[in-house]
Specification:
Elements: E1 6-8, E2 16-18, H1 23-28, H2 41-47, E3 48-52, E4 67-69, E5 74-76, E6 81-83, H3 85-93, E7 103-105, E8 109-112, E9 115-119, H4 125-128, E10 131-135, H5 155-166, H6 193-201, H7 208-226, H8 244-251, E11 257-259, E12 265-267, H9 269-282
Parallel strand pairs: 5-8
Antiparallel strand pairs: 1-2, 3-10, 4-5, 6-7, 8-9, 9-10, 11-12
Helix pairs in contact: 5-6, 7-9
Length: 297
Amino acid sequence: MRQPLEIDRRNGNKPRVVTDRNVGYKYGYRGTHAAVRYLSPYEFTMDWEIQRATYPRDAGQRFNKAQHHNDANLTYSPYHTYLTESGKQKLRLRHELLPGVDYRIHGDEGITQGRTWVAFPESAATLRHEWVMVRRIRSAVPKFDGAPLLKNGSKNDHARHMSVFFRPWTLDEDHVDEHVPHAINLCSDDVAWQDAWVQWCNGNVLSQQSKHLIINFQAVFCMRQEDDLPTGDKKTDTSIILTVEERKSALRTCMRQSKDGDGKMTNDSSAEASFKLVQQAWGTLTSNTFDRSKHVK
């Protein structure tokens, strides 16, 4: 999933372009914090963003302090990290600071500049003091580099991509559990991706939100295959004005319709085929979903 390039301006004297913003890699080492452990990559990207941890630009003690709120069990601080003695000295000399050596994270979670954040675990040493997972102010729609599913891909191709997007997984073997497998174990060698995906959908989806996201994503993808436009088509939307009743009607989820031979409106055959294809390929997702709160330690 795509994230734009970032300019690291923490050192005002030496701003630089950030090139190591691999979201998938960092997601895999997010740890076991209750807020992020059972999120799929798609859900994680919707509600969280990965930012470079901030540190004080002044060696004064007032910028290094953090307050702990016992009731909320959160650390409130003006920056995600604090300066060590070596960091203070380097800052005065305008030298580059090293994460974990010259500045260190303020605990496992906190609030900085009004934004809630979660730290990477101690086991992710290269990420722990350099990056933080920050909750978005409002949910965002994830953007993909290229097409999320191959236009001419097989059912196994689609199932493999869907598994990576919508199933939680980890890259840390110590954080594997019943519901969060290692990435290489999303599908075993003796099972087809399509079968593994359908099996997971039937009783192992971790939340109602996940279920709705999967259904919507699959339905939209199937309809886009039906309505694919030529590459050079540059049609623009036409503005329309709706009455209150028309707007309510427009917001309802309805299958596309067309006129039959007698002029009556009936469900469009291609739309019906798309919905059937979704159920055949991915399952109905009607079984009970997993309650995350019961599995958070």
